[in-house]
Amino acid sequence: MSTDAVFAAALDTAQRTVTSISQLSTSATVGLDTAYATQHAVIARRLARGELRTGLKLGFTSRAKAQQMGVDDVIIGTLTDAMRLDDGAVFDRRSAIHPRVEPEVAYLLGADVSEGMTNLMDAVAAVAPALEIIDSRYRDFHFSLGDVVADNASAAAYAIGPWAPVDRAGDLANRAVRLEVDGRISTTGSTAAILGDPARAVAAAARLAVRHGFTLRAGTVLLAGAATAAVPLPDSGVVEATIAGLGRVSIRVLDGAPDPDEKGSR
Ligand code: OOG
Ligand code: MG
Known about the structure:
Blueprint: H1 3-17, H2 32-48, E1 53-59, H3 63-69, E2 75-80, E3 84-85, E4 90-92, E5 100-109, E6 124-134, H4 145-150, E7 155-160, E8 164-165, H5 166-169, E9 176-181, E10 184-190, H6 200-212, E11 221-223, E12 231-232, E13 237-243, E14 247-254
Parallel strand pairs: 1-11, 3-7, 4-14
Antiparallel strand pairs: 1-2, 5-6, 5-11, 5-12, 6-7, 6-8, 9-10, 9-13, 13-14
Helix pairs in contact: 1-2
Bound molecules: 2-oxoadipic acid and magnesium ion (MG).
2-oxoadipic acid binds near residues 57, 59, 60 and 65.
């Protein structure tokens, strides 16, 4: 087996068995090419089990995130339907190792992004508030840039609130962002933290896509990256993200199987 296939098997098993592993970079050099090849191999394993690609996510688009994790390059990862939660749905805390949650902005592409496009926002159809749950497969949530790229940018789950058509959503360059747990404010920030303006996320994703073998097709969801540092996911409770003037999205965390009589469970 090639190195990236060996790394991918270890990361995939860690995710499926909810068991952390050592960083790949402690025993090997994990450059960006190997890291993205590993991520593609992890996703290939998931697709082989029947999962479908739903979108892409950016990581470290804000200083707050980059500083929290000690890295300073924007990275890209893949979202699948197995990671998708409906707005208000239950997330089983036991399905993750040491999950953290982030408030995000999501874009929905209405057209394929092609290299010749001058204004990439023309490809965006709608925008929504989003929550992302990240869960590094590495022990203690410690990693190098190559490690986290290989680990699909720590992607675990995401929920998207109501979509607003992009022409009605207005300028999202500087909107207040709030993350609440059971109605108590957990962290606040501004969308301005995301590359200065989250609208730049589409161009950033297009650049990374060309370089690292991703495609930005119509129907793709793009998470622009967290505006704030991630916070530990509570063992139980309602987590809600609000973006001023755009709306809110929530998930309910349960430490165990959801009550089968309840609606909105997965
Ligand atoms: C990597 C994922 C970063 C973001 O929004 O910046 C990310 C991590 O912090 O584990 O999702
Ligand atoms: Mg994120």
